[in-house]
Amino acid sequence: MRRDGKFISVGCDVKFQILESGVSIPVCNEEDRRRNEAIAMYYVKHAACPKCGSTSNEQTCAGFAMFGRETDIDGNRVRCECGWKGIVHDLVPISFGGIGA
Q1: pLDDT in tens, 48-64
Q2: 49-87 burial code (b ≥16 CB/10 A, e <16)
Q3: Contacts of 38 (CB under 8 A, 6+ apart)
């Protein structure tokens, strides 16, 4: 494995880009890079419980197709340890200063 700036090469044609959020995404070509970055950012924006702010939850894995479009919605069900229930799309960004900070 080789690290070149913000990219990690795994010895094949696929590289992984490391986003500012620390998420790494596979990069094959420019279209893949844009789509994968959009999908990764979707999950950064939909990561925490809207009730308590926790990221510790249980999720179903029904295989909702994500294409990196603004209209994509992950409808997998989520149950938080605080008792809140909803879908992944209902989750909120992680807040490092408390809810609403």
Answers
A1: 999 999 999 999 988 77
A2: beeebeeebeeeeeeeebebeeeeebeeebebeeebeeb
A3: 68, 69
Measuring CA to CA, which residue among 33, 64, 51, 40 is closest to residue 90? 51
pLDDT in the model for residue 29: 76
pTM above 0.85, yes or no: no
By DSSP bridging, strand 2-4 and strand 57-59 are unpaired
Looking up tokens 């494995």 gives 1
Alpha helices (runs of H) in the chain, residue ranges in sequence order: 30-45
- The length of the chain, given as a count of residues: 101
Predicted confidence band of residue 12 (pLDDT cuts 50, 70, 90): very low
